[in-house]
What does this fold into?
Amino acid sequence: MNEEIRAREVRLVSSTNEQLGIMLLRDALRLAVEQNLDLVEVAPTAKPPVCRIMDFGKFRYEQQKRDKEVKKKQKVVALKEVKLRPNIEDHDFNVKLKNAQRFLEDGDKVKVTIMFRGRELSHPELGKQVLVRMASLLKEMANIERDAKLEGKNMIMIVAPKPNNNTQSST
It folds into this structure.
């Protein structure tokens, strides 16, 4: 920008996007100063480099506004967790199922974890049955992103919302 530009000659574009041609850097800077604007290098790798006369402060402000708008429209997918035990009762299971459904409706992924303690670890098939039951009840609103897998003392399965389900909840 302005005096920081190191090229001797530059291709100049006016503030109205009009090509002013190739000229010496000092002449381009003089034109920018006469208009109370900045000389900004927009294509430094071109031969000669391309510079534009613009209000750099205004340009940065508008760029920040555009970035903020783009960020506002993004949907951040969080990973929520539901913890269960292999010998969970029906009512407790249904409460955890409702929580998982609510998370999926909000567009978040759900990590379903079965925690094993002590001798329960010698029967991982009991935890697998609970996860299969959970997956079968969630299959209409979710896809299994990662199948049940034993990691240490926990068995983990990750479920993601189906894409068509996500668009309905955002409107």
Notes: The domain at 2-71 is CATH 3.10.20.80 (Ubiquitin-like (UB roll)).
